[in-house]
Amino acid sequence: MLIDTHCHLDAPEFNDDREAVFKAARQNGVAAMIIPAIERANFATVAQLAQQFSACAYALGIHPMLVDKALPEDLDFLAQFIAEKLMTENSPIAIGEIGLDFFVPGSAPGVQRELQEHYFVAQLKLARQFNLPVLLHVRRAIDDVLKHLRRIKVIGGIAHAFNGSHQQADEFIKLGFKLGFGGAMTYTRALKLRELATTLPLEAIVLETDAPDISPAWLGSGARNSPAELPKIAQVLADLRGLKLAQVADRTTQNALDILPNLADLCTSAKVLH
Predict the structure, then answer these.
(1) 189 lies in which domain range?
(2) Model pTM greater than 0.90?
């Protein structure tokens, strides 16, 4: 059993064959897929997909690269949406995708950075308020993300698409976080990332695809990624660590359930196991 801890199944790239993509993932042994929101406009969409497709759960948040489109009232809407959904069976399992991204320079980098941090801090406070873990976007901003996590304590979460140093990984682990590894790890040239995947405690690692993005080596850069690729990604991790696929699958699945406790109900429910 495998869990894709980060999969944008709502993305337009899947509009023509979303159900087939979901079924292919299930047939390949993916027991659950987590669909993170990225802006107010898709809050309802990810919630609806989690209800429509068995084995799917969702998270709600405003992505750092979309804060320039966000409005101050979107944070109030997010809080209200979470509160309402938590009273239903189709409730979010995390706040996400949230975080910081200092990779792509904007027309006014200082202003953009300040705006990203404003929304990130506000959403960390919501995670603390609702006692939910967070799915973090940390590209070129790991130390800044860690700074805010030390100040605003949350119950943990996942540093999605982790590509930092061993020391930074240790800091996330100390704060109760797991680290997401996916398609980027499958490229032989990704020496630093593969070294991390090999040497970090297996108890700290969860698997993800970030589909339709971060395609693995066998698809080629820029190709549409899919949650059905997760078993082959898991096999790469197993090969790097000299383990059997079943060992990696069992451990990373348990890691995901440990850090996202509300996911356990989904994975043991009849609708997932059928």
Answers:
(1) 2-273
(2) yes
Domain count across the chain = 1
Cα–Cα dist 4/112, whole Å: 30
What average pLDDT values come out for the chain (274 residues) when binned by 10 residues?
97 98 97 98 98 95 96 97 95 97 69 92 98 97 98 98 98 98 98 98 98 97 97 98 98 97 71 40
CATH assignment at residue 107: 3.20.20.140
pLDDT at 265: 74
pLDDT of residue 264: 81
